[in-house]
UniProtKB/TrEMBL annotation:
Region (Glutamate--cysteine ligase): 1-344
MF annotations from Gene Ontology: glutamate-cysteine ligase activity; glutathione synthase activity
PANTHER family on file: GLUTAMATE--CYSTEINE LIGASE (PTHR38761:SF1)
Annotated source species: Exiguobacterium profundum
Native organism taxonomy: Bacteria, Bacillati, Bacillota, Bacilli, Bacillales
Protein name (Swiss-Prot/TrEMBL): Glutathione biosynthesis bifunctional protein GshAB
Assembly notes: Monomer.
Amino acid sequence: MQKQFNQLPHHLITSGKFAIEREMLRVTSEGTLAVTKHPKALGHKATHPYITTDFSESQIELVTPTFPTIEAAHHFLETLYDITALNIGDERLWPQSMPCALPEGGTIPLADFGVSGIEASRYREHLLQKYGAKKQLISGIHFNFSFSDEMLSALYEGSPEQNRHFKDHLYLKLVRQYLRMRWLIVYLLGATPAVHASYEERCVSQMQALHVDTFSNKQALSYRNSDCGYTNVEPLYPNYATLSSYIDDVKRFIAKGEIANPNELYSPIRLKTSKGGNDLNQLEAHGIDYIEIRNIDLNPFEKTGIARSDLRFLHLFLLYLTFTKETSHVDWQAEAYNNQQRVAKEGMSPASILTRDGYAIPLHTYATELLDAIDSFNTQYDLGFEDVFPAVREKIDHVDRTYASRLKTIMTETGYHAWSLAQAEHFYEDAYANRFRIHGYADLELSTQILMKSAIKRGYRVDVIDRSDQFIRIRNGKHEEYVKQATKTSKDNYVSVLMMENKTVTKFVLAEHGIRVPEGVELQDESDLRQAWDSFSKQPIVLKPKSTNFGVGIHIFKDGATYEEARTAFQYAKTFDDVVLLETFLPGKEYRFLVIGDDVAGILHRVPANVTGDGTSSIRQLVATKNEDPLRGKGYKTPLEKIDIDEVVISFLRAQGKTPDSIPALDERVFLRENSNISTGGDSIDYTDQISDIYKRIAVDAAKSVGATICGVDMMIPSLDDAQIEYGIIELNFNPAIHIHAFPYEGKERPIGEMLLDLLFKY
């Protein structure tokens, strides 16, 4: 095997499958344990594949799917965090592994899985009685890792029936090695140097006060990984020589009553099978498919609970452990356990001593030599992890750079509770700022991201089939839907799309159904314009391409136009389509109605791109300042689009006697375009609750007239006074952007992604 490993290309060595689980407590706005039920907005905890509970009803657990890269898994975890943080009302997510302020003798609600989860409830009752609720509320990160099938195939030589034994052997070696060296991860990622005063009295009584609510022995790095944390009553050492010996030992522990089931073996690393997780019978039948690292504290400096750089180092560490020689020290499990305890409770001490194969060695010396070996391994096989070493070396050489030491300093100054609650609020604000994004998919249009995020919230599976074409698949059980650009779905037929794309056909069909539309003609060349001009020359007009969206190529003349102005506008529109429409301009404000099925999901008034003067800045400078808004971007990946100063803007300013370098007066509002499309920098104002149901019915009828299920209806309304119903529909859009309704510039945000899923899956 070693010879083959030496010959593997580095990309194959580093290939694998990665998933992350993150536990965390829900707390009240005051920072005490929230005793409310698992939020309904997050779905059913027993069936949701990504968001569930752990020991307590108050303890959220996030579970990512398996990904081929750490980056993808980490992005998904961040998305799950954002979804959770934004759907628990006024509660917040506690950033620490060790619990928040806990009630003395008060209720800590166990996770309730209902009738179908009786066994799970009984197991939690067992844990409650044996270990106490406070210990069970400790949270952490679990990192799931497996080698890629391609790498295992490249390494394996032998008959197919022996392949499983080869894989088991490889994972068992990794487990043994990790157990030996796990103290290094406790040192580097330990982030529980103190506990709240309300934590278990047996532990707190052995500590000193750092602050009025904060206790520690002042040298601890990770109480979570100590005897005050998540451990069995006594250390248990199963035999990891073979899979069968491991299974036999765990069964023996259960038979003797030392643990109730395999899940109660609180090992820093677990053997898992994809056919049944930690179930011993499934493990015996199918073999080891992946391992689960369980001794990682939540990093309260990170919103996700773990830095991506730390995950990368952990990946390299696992590779190193797998493909380097084991020692033959007999009493290695007890030594490994004792090393973990020393680092966990005394790791900040400069005099910390560990043992290596039975011999004493200073922690710093051991860590430095081990890191040097990992560095050499990375260099030898050109694995590409050079970027992770500087931060790791800094922590080894300077204990005050460790997460635990930094936390101890902060908690000594501000206290455990105050800082942790402030961090929880800070991470909530970050989640809110990213509420319209799904992390890792910034290249997708925002409407697509919104739909994907809504699907993930419900626990649906989402696959990106073609990123460049915004083509995704959403699955809920056996029901699957293919969606392009968020609103091109199986619910609309092809001819409806063609009808809406052709503005002439749209107007014809709407008029036949008694729906008001502007009068107009088609122009193919300038002779058509000259022939029609007498009929339109003395009234407000619009010239626009026949078959474009997003307001491209449109010129609006509210006060009429000269023939030369109309001809220039015609020539510009002609660059986007062979046919140009000349129409009467309908008076009033323009509103976008988003029709989904039989309902109007949202209504917007779109204000043309504009700036407001400050008395000193030029229009160009004001545009640059407005474009700095984080909600503005390019390519429909943010709720608003940046404003471009193009020829249309320059022409429109010229008509006002201005240029981009003009300086507007204080509070003077300057419009930069006639058309109000968000795609050209306009502002979106929500009017869904201000507009009469009469107009909503008209919009739905307009969509139905062309057979559309998802449709954008652009309607001109002179007045919102119901006394006189006046309107005109100027356009239907077959691919309406949903992000402008989900996240308007002003007004109520609408759950459009949820509404689309309701339509697609009859939720």
